[in-house]
Amino acid sequence: MTRRRFIADTWTGSTATLTGDQATHLARVLRAEPGQVYDVVAGGFLHRAEIASVSPSEVSFILHEELESDTALPLHLLLAVFKFDHMEWAIEKATELGVERITPILARRTEKHLAQAAAKRAERWRRIVLEASKQSRRTSVPEIADPTALKAILEQEQSPIRILLSETEQATTLAEALKKISTATDDRVPHSSQPHREGWDEYPHLALAIGPEGGWTQEEMAIFTEHHWQSVTLGPRILRAETAAIAAIAIASTHFA
Predict the structure, then answer these.
(1) Among 159, 163, 157, residue whose Cα is nearest residue 233
(2) What CATH number did the domain enclosing 9 receive?
(3) Do 13 and 107 share a domain, yes or no?
(4) How far apart are CA 253 and CA 249, in angstroms?
(5) Across all residues in the chain, what is the average pLDDT?
(6) pLDDT tens digit sequence for 179-201
(7) Into how many domains does the chain fold?
(8) 46, 95, 102, 218: which has the highest count of C-beta atoms within 10 A?
(9) Helix (H, G, I), strand (E, B) or coil at 17
(10) What is the sign, positive or negative, of the torsion defined by CA atoms of 222, 224, 227, 229?
(11) Is residue 37 predicted with pLDDT exceeding 80?
(12) Domain limits for position 229
């Protein structure tokens, strides 16, 4: 039987601690007791862990051996802010698909009331990725940045591969653009400094930008071009932003396999 998995709130050396809702769930719902064993993620590593003490506000563990685990997809998703219920769904599914980072973008066509409220939503988005990470049995939780203006994030972006989904691009598909990455890495076996972990440490990181409903403005497209982003298409159909995000992540993941 698969053991339940939790993501530690704090950890040090051979111990880890759950607090808040996670501790309450363990103590009051699962009726956890000292000596019980669970899987606990601490510092991005998966451990078999034994409960040392239990209270409604804190559950502490002794960490035992590390277990085999995977790593995040080396993908930074730049997601323009759109209707919050749709965006939350996209963030949840992007987490399940393994993305490493998500940055909400305040685009020119982001609706004004959404842009004004986005900062207050950031903590909710972080709770969503935590729960989605536990549900999908990830060993890392995607970083959710505070909502950021497009120009500012493009000036900071360090990913060597930068791809922009654009409604004006008709020729180059995302799959074709990523094929070059696959070709360049076919003879390289991904590995990490930890031999028991499987991951994509040898692959170049990818930044992927998804625009708001209505797409990017010409001014924004010029900023992308200035910062060396490649425009691609997902095909002839016009997709909602959340559909485009999930489709693009799924396509990208096959080229990092």
Answers:
(1) 163
(2) 2.40.240.20
(3) no
(4) 6
(5) 87
(6) 876 665 555 444 444 433 344 44
(7) 2
(8) 95
(9) strand
(10) negative
(11) yes
(12) 70-255
